[in-house]
Amino acid sequence: MDKSPGWLRAVQIGLGIIVVILSIYALAYPAAAFVSLVLILGIILLIVGIEKIISGIFLPIKGRGASIGLGILVLIFAGLVIAFPGFATWIITVFIGIALLFGGAASIAEGFSGKESGWKRAFLIGVGALLIIIGIIVLVSPVFGAAFAGIVVAIGLLIAGIQIIVAGTTGRRLNLPTTDTLTGKK
Questions:
Q1: What is the average per-residue pLDDT within 93-108?
Q2: Residue ranges of the alpha helices (H) in 29-141?
Q3: Whole-angstrom Cα distance, residue 48 to residue 53?
Q4: How many angstroms separate the CA atoms of 38 and 48, rounded?
Q5: Are residues 128 and 111 in contact, defined by beta-carbon separation less than 8 angstroms?
Q6: If DSSP codes are grouped into helix, strand and coil, which group holds residue 28?
Q7: CB-neighbour burial class of residue 1 (10 A; exposed 0-12, middle 13-18, buried 19+)
Q8: Interatomic CA distance for residues 120 and 118, integer angstroms
Q9: Residue 39: φ, ψ to 5°
C-alpha cells in the first residue's frame, strides 16, 4: 500500500490537532460543549427543514404535501432548539436519563433471567445497577447529565483526533477491527 501524498498528510495532521484541541476544550467544559452540540444540531435541522420544503415545492415527488408539512415541522422544532438551546439540552438530557433507567432495568432483568450464570450474571446485574444509578443522577441533576454527555462526546472526539494525526504521520489509514474482521467475513 502506498503512502498518502504529503499535502494530504499535512492536512490530516492539522485537522487532527484541531480535533484534539477542541476535544480538550470539551473535556474542560463538557456541559457547554453539549449545549453547543445541541445548538449545532438545531442549525443542521434548520437546513434539513428548508431542503424538505424546497424539495416538496420544486421537485416532482410523491407526497409533496407531506414533504412540505414535515419540513415546516422540522423548521419549527429547529427554531425552538436554536432559540432555547438550554431547554433543548435539558429535554435531551432527560431522555438520556430515562434511556439509562430502561437500559439498566433491561440489563438487570437479563441477569436475573437465569440464562446466564456466574460472572456474566453478576456483570449484567452490576452494569444494570450502575446504569440505573447514573440515570437517576442524570434525572435529578440535568447539568450533570449534560456534562456526562459532553464528556462522552469529548472522549470520542479525542480518540478520533488522535487517529487522524496517526494516519497523517504514518501516511496510512489505521486498520481498526470491523465487524467483518471480527466475524471472519471477507
A1: 95
A2: 30-58, 64-83, 85-112, 119-140
A3: 9
A4: 15
A5: yes
A6: helix
A7: exposed
A8: 6
A9: -65, -45
How crowded is the C-beta side of 19, counted as CA atoms within 13 Å? 19
Residue for cell digits 467483518? 180
Q: What is the pLDDT of residue 118?
A: 87
What 70-75 contacts at long range (C-beta under 8 Å, 24+ apart), as own/partner pairs, is 73/49, 74/45, 74/46, 74/48, 74/49, 75/46, 75/49, 75/50
| Chain CA centroid to CA 59, Å | 32
Reading the block at residue 172, the C-alpha cell is 496510512
pTM of the model: 0.71
Phi, psi at 33, each rounded to 5°: -65, -40
Query: Following DSSP, what letter does each residue of 149-181 receive, concatenated?
Result: HHHHHHHHHHHHHHHHHHHHHHSS------HHH
Q: What is the pLDDT of residues 15-64, one digit of tens each?
A: 999 999 999 999 999 999 999 999 999 999 999 999 999 999 988 888 88
Q: Which residue, 21, 2, 78, 11, is CA-closest to 44? A: 78
Contacts of 23 (CB under 8 A, 6+ apart): 154, 155, 157, 158, 160, 161
